[in-house]
Amino acid sequence: MTRINTAADPLGTDAAVLVFELETQQFALPLRRVQRVLRSVAITPLPGAPSIVLGVVDIAGSVLPVIDMRARFGCPARAVHPSDQLVLAHTDRRSVALLVDATAGVVVPALPL
């Protein structure tokens, strides 16, 4: 019997994730939420912001809050390294920059046989 996939996303790309690293752990973010990944840039502190907000960055004229993913996931705090990356992502309400140690790539789930 031939199986025909009639789903809106026949290649399963809607389930693809961006894998990022914090310390020795890996986490994933749905790729449909990711706009792009950049090397870290200077972050302007934002007094009075929640503890996981490091500050803001200006990316092509858009001011985005920078979320400290280390603080969000309980990893030890450390200074921002030049090798760190910003994952520009969007929620249903706003765009944000997620500060991560590194990105490990995109994973697309295998299609069932």
Provide an overview of this structure.
By secondary structure, the chain is mainly beta. 4% of the residues lie in helices and 44% in strands. It is globular, with a radius of gyration of 17 Å. The termini are close together. The N terminus is likely disordered.
Low-pLDDT parts are 1-8
Return Rg in Å: 17 Å
What is the helix fraction of residues, given as a range?
A: under 10%
Q: Structural class of the secondary structure composition?
A: mainly beta
Total number of helices: 1
Overall average residue pLDDT: 87
Strand content: 35-45%
Strand order in the largest sheet: 3-6-7-5-4
Kindly, what is the distance between the CA atoms of the first and last residues, rounded to a whole number of angstroms? 12 Å
State the shape: globular
Number of strands: 8
H/E topology pattern: EEEEEHEEE
In this structure, how is the largest beta sheet organized?
5 strands, mixed
